[in-house]
């Protein structure tokens, strides 16, 4: 039975941290090492970690000044002593047999499972069953679009990685990024794998919070980062000898649609929204990207049409009202 190192980065997570660590401690798969990295928490997180460490010798806890989740995860990788690595966020939980589900396929280089999303506003649970797969990496990348929506591939959670691959190719979470670093790590890892196994059973519960603070989360650079991730996905596809990138190219336009819809609803002056809409759309060559494939959805036609004609207000009003109506229904 191979040992599995589970890395948990923590920053002010006292609300759910006890439940998170307990879900790891009570795994049916007992041969685990739990590495908890406190990233300068100022709440009761450290006390919760210490309590569990006193009760379970498999827990190793380390503290550092607040430097971000990427630095904390990289520290966890460095301190781990197992060949198999798993990452768990401190406000999420594992199912009792999560590690067992993934570790049974430890002969593969990259192992991925399904996950559930717990909506913290209404308590509803969305189950995302990962399409089953077992085979070589080139075959996996021939069907990569199946693992991008919902986003199975781009998170480091609900997966097992091999430390030998990470170490051999110096694969780390980019520490200067605070958005998209997860995807960059996973995609960089996937450049060096030979075999893949995907389990359709859920092995991770992810908490989804409300959108009341959407304005504080909006990032002007979000589209550029998402497009860089798309570039990386295409690079991996071509690396494994697959030239069918049409479905991935569609993601560029859809990313801009989602970016625009989010921009329309944030707490920002109208003139600033308009400026960002056109500046970012043109910088990211969205008009040229839209020409690369034929059929656009209604939303894509409206937003790309607005970018092309420089008529902002009609489309802005349509999506603003639509967004408000959807909020009222919820």
From TrEMBL:
Alphabetized InterPro entries for the sequence: Glyco_trans_2-like, Nucleotide-diphossugar_trans
Cited SUPFAM superfamilies: Nucleotide-diphospho-sugar transferases (SSF53448)
Gene3D superfamilies cross-referenced by the UniProt entry: Spore Coat Polysaccharide Biosynthesis Protein SpsA, Chain A
Transmembrane segments: none
Single GO MF annotation: hexosyltransferase activity
Keyword Ribosomal protein among record annotations: no
Keywords: Transferase
Residue ranges of domain Glycosyltransferase 2-like in the record: 5-167
Name of the protein this chain belongs to: Glycosyltransferase
Species, as recorded: Blautia obeum
């Amino acid at each position: 039975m191979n040992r599995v190192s589970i890395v948990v980065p923590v920053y002010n997570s006292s609300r759910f941290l006890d439940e998170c660590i307990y879900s790891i401690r009570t795994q049916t798969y007992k041969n685990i090492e739990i590495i908890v990295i406190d990233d300068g928490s100022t709440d009761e997180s450290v006390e919760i970690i210490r309590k569990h460490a006193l009760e379970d010798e498999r827990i190793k806890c380390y503290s550092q000044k607040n430097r971000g989740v990427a630095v904390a995860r990289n520290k966890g990788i460095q301190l781990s002593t197992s060949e198999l690595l798993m990452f768990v966020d401190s406000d999420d939980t594992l199912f009792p047999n999560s590690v067992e589900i993934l570790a049974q396929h430890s002969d593969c280089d990259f192992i991925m499972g399904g996950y559930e999303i717990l909506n913290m506003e209404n308590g509803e649970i969305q189950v995302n069953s990962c399409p089953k797969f077992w085979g070589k990496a080139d075959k996996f990348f021939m069907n990569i679009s199946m693992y991008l929506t919902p986003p199975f591939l781009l998170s480091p959670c609900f997966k097992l990685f091999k430390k030998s691959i990470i170490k051999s190719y110096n694969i780390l979470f980019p520490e200067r990024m605070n958005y998209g670093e997860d995807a960059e790590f996973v995609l960089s890892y996937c450049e060096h794998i030979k075999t893949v196994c995907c389990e359709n059973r859920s092995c991770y519960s992810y908490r989804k919070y409300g959108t009341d603070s959407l304005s504080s989360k909006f990032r002007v650079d979000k589209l550029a980062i998402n497009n860089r991730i798309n570039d990386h996905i295409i690079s991996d596809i071509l690396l494994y000898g697959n030239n069918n990138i049409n479905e991935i190219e569609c993601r560029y336009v859809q990313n801009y649609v989602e970016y625009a819809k989010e921009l329309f609803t944030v707490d920002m002056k109208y003139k600033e929204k308009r400026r960002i809409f056109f500046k970012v759309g043109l910088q990211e060559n969205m008009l040229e990207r839209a020409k690369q494939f034929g059929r656009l959805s209604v939303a894509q036609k409206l937003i790309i049409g607005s970018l092309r004609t420089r008529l902002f207000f009609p489309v802005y009003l349509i999506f603003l009202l639509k967004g408000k109506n959807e909020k009222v229904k919820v």
